[in-house]
Amino acid sequence: MAMNLIQGGKVTVMVANVERAVRFYTQALGLTLGSRQGDRYAEVAAPGLTLALLESELPAAPRGPVPVHCSIGFQVERLEGAMLVLHERGVRFAPDVAEGERERIAYFTDDDGTPLFLTEEKASAPPSPVNPA
To answer: What are the sequence ranges of the domains in the chain?
Structure first.
C-alpha cells in the first residue's frame, strides 16, 4: 500500500512590497487574508490554495519580462520520515533543516531547479501559566 507523504501545500510568491501584494490579492482578486508576520510575510487564501507572500531581498527587475520568483511547499506529517523516503527516490535536500517559529522546513529543487520545500508544522506549545500578582 502506497503511503501518502504530501498532506497539503502552499505557494510562496516573492514580492517587492508585501502591503501592496496583500491589497492586490485581497482587494483585486478577492482572496482572504490569513496570517501576517510583520511587514515581510503574509498569507492569502482561496479555496484549496494558500499563497504565502514573502518580500524578496532581490531588487525589482527593470522593464521587461518579470522573472518568476516562487517556490512550492508541501506539508508533511513527519519531516524526517518524508525526507528519508524522498532521499531514497533520488531527491537531494539542502544540508540544514530550517527551524521557524511555527514550522520546520527542508529545501530541495526539481530537475529544472524550481525551488521546492517540505514543511512540518510544529505542535502548538501549551499556554504559559499566568503568575498571579
So the answer is: 67-123
Specify the higher pLDDT residue, 89 or 65: 89
Q: What pairing do the DSSP bridges indicate for beta strands 49-55 and 70-75?
A: unpaired
The CATH code of the domain at 67-123 is 3.10.180.10
**Three-class DSSP labels, the chain:** CCCCCCCEEEEEEEECCHHHHHHHHHHHCCCEEEEEECCCEEEEEECCEEEEEEECCCCCCCCCCCCCCEEEEEECCCHHHHHHHHHHCCCCECCCCEECCCEEEEEEECCCCCEEEEEEECCCCCCCCCCCC
Q: What is the pLDDT of residues 15-33, one digit of tens each?
A: 888 998 898 888 877 889 9
Cα 3 from Cα 82, distance rounded (Å) = 10
What whole-number distance in Å separates Cα of residue 52 and Cα of residue 97? 19
Model pLDDT, residue 42: 96
Residue with cell 483585486: 28
Q: Which pTM was predicted?
A: 0.57
